[in-house]
Amino acid sequence: MPNGVMVIAEQRDGEIRKVSYEIVSEGRNLADSLGQVVTAVLLGSGVKDKAAILGQYGADRVLVADDPRLETYTTDAYVAVIAEVVKANDPAILLLGGSAQGKDLSARLSARLGVGTAQDCTAFSLESGNLVALRPIYAGKAYAKVSFVDSWPQMAVARPNVMAMNEPNTSKSPEVVDVSFSLDDSALKTRVVESIRDESGKVDLTEADIIVSGGRGMKGPEGYGILEELANVLGASVGASRSAVDAGWRPHSDQVGQTGKVVSPNLYIACGISGAIQHLAGMSTSKVIVAINKDAEAPIFQKADFGVVDDLFNIIPAFTEEVKKIA
Amino acid sequence: MVVVNIIVCLKQVPDTETQIRIAPDGKSIAQEDIKWIMNPYDEFGVEEALKLKEKFGGEVTVVGAGPKRVTESIRTALAMGADKGILINDPAFEGSDSLGTAKALAAVIKNLEYDLIFTGQRGVDDDLGLVGAALAEFLDIPVLSVITKVDVAEDGKSVRVHRPVEGQTLVIESDLPALITTQKGLNEPRYASLPGIMKAKKKPFDEKTLADLGLSEADFGGGARKLQILELTPPPQREAGRIVEGETPEKKAKELARLLHEEAKVV
Ligand SMILES: Cc1cc2nc3c(=O)[nH]c(=O)nc-3n(C[C@H](O)[C@H](O)[C@H](O)COP(=O)(O)OP(=O)(O)OC[C@H]3O[C@@H](n4cnc5c(N)ncnc54)[C@H](O)[C@@H]3O)c2cc1C
Ligand SMILES: Nc1ncnc2c1ncn2[C@@H]1O[C@H](COP(=O)(O)O)[C@@H](O)[C@H]1O
Questions:
Q1: Which domains does chain B have, with CATH numbers?
Q2: Fewest C-beta atoms under 10 Å: which of A33, A34, A171, A238?
Q3: What per-residue confidence (pLDDT) applies to A327?
Q4: What is the pLDDT of residues B57-104, one digit of tens each?
Q5: Are residues A177 and A234 in the same domain?
Q6: Does A44 touch chain B (CB under 8 A)?
Q7: Residue B135 has pLDDT above 80, yes or no
Q8: Range list of H helices, chain A
Q9: Same domain, yes or no: A170 and A241
């Protein structure tokens, strides 16, 4: 009988990433309702001393796969090791975080294990002891409640930044276990030859707490100067609508929306963005939405918690000054 | 001579402008009034394949699985410049999940000659993004996902790609054959030209049933799904927002800052 909740933690450069704490917390809640155990799995090289912190968020046990070939993520190596660990432990529920890595890993793992996968989930619950996941589809125009049929483990991937994290309990320490695995070099077919850091040095949009986004209303690439300034004061990252990206004002990596990034910050400030359905698809799970637009009829106001109807070139600099006073 | 043969997988999805209505069964969407288009990410796949063909020569084959209407999107790809189209069309396939879809695609593709396969990073319908990786798994080739740049080596034997992840871009190398899932930024898809549309009508187009592919109907369709929809609901409504008042921009800005600080507590 499959039993227990398994969570795949994620580290980069030896540091555990926030999305891991979100899914460990979620796993803890599910396991408590089921009266089962939470096992976290951590892959990397020389990462064993990081395992304990996963316990503070709710892991009872951490399985560590330590190997120089696991230092940086590759699909081939991670899928091979995790598939082996999953088969050996037979969990009922398998959770991953929906980072770039988590999405890539879960997709191939799903086929390797022959199980269904609920991607991009915004909530988990249990019905008769089985996992039920809620996920936006059709760019958030509908929400699907999904469950699994004859598919063990029940595998689900959480949208980052959406699920609540448990308060870390520093007095808790998990059992940390080295797992053995076989990893055949001939299975490793891709090589990461370089990693180029984004020059901006800003937190990626998918992980940002605050995003200020600009659209066609910014008028041109220079217009973003005032957004960058506001972003600096707020500690925010800067996003853009597709119109701004297609006009060449901002890089593709800044695009928020259906064919861009899906983001869920605590605060999303949309400036000179009309609120097309494809843009809303990327930001409608933000906790607080602010819209600054001179057109009172712009659809973005229907989604915004706070709307300012005015010229953004007047509002943004004044707002930046006000935020400075608070901070 | 080096040639690079390419397969592009093509999914048909509702136009992104489409109003999504939930069908009376509460588990699916109403099919009337939907305008069907090629998944936008698959346009990037077609474009990249055509660019590689222009450089290396070789053939571009477009493969789709779904009902008859998918023919139209495959024709669009042919009109853009692809050489051949294949549609897996079988009533028993309807309702298949990602794994079923990938299995059917793999059954067609394993009999073709290919160096590269493109799929979209995700369909903008069910937003799952699983078929590409599953197809690669069933064909036992590497998957390179969410890619914004593709360089095939001059000898046509390996590829170097760019994969943006949070805060950095990874440069990854792989031997061919490999499967690449496309991301915005890869290229600007061309439009089909009028002569292209005329030519497309004469290009080879094949239809296959599951039986033609030696597949068993029992492994496909709604009955074989591993993930089932219990219920579809409209998106959670956000509470009606409020418009920040003030006689001057400065006063509005000040009030906004106050609201975000004191009420929403996000600043
Ligand atoms: C297949 C497909 C995928 C798409 N994917 C995406 C996507 O991922 N992301 C995305 O964003 N879009 C996407 N789009 C495009 C989308 O439909 C819209 O065209 C786009 O979002 C509009 O961008 P915008 O709001 O910046 O521009 P507009 O719609 O032109 O809006 C500009 C707004 O700025 C306001 N404004 C102008 N000047 C000022 C000023 N001085 N002060 C204050 N306000 C001002 C105007 O009132 C207006 O509301 C997609 C479209 C398609 C067909
Ligand atoms: N029925 C299908 N026929 C052909 N290709 C498909 C099909 N479904 C998915 N794909 C491919 O897989 C990509 C991702 O789709 P999905 O995994 O469904 O989100 C699509 O962009 C297509 O390239």
A1: 6-224 (3.40.50.620), 236-267 (no CATH)
A2: A171
A3: 74
A4: 999 999 999 999 999 999 999 999 999 999 999 999 999 999 999 999
A5: no
A6: no
A7: yes
A8: 18-34, 52-56, 75-89, 100-113, 224-234, 242-246, 277-283, 300-303, 312-326
A9: no
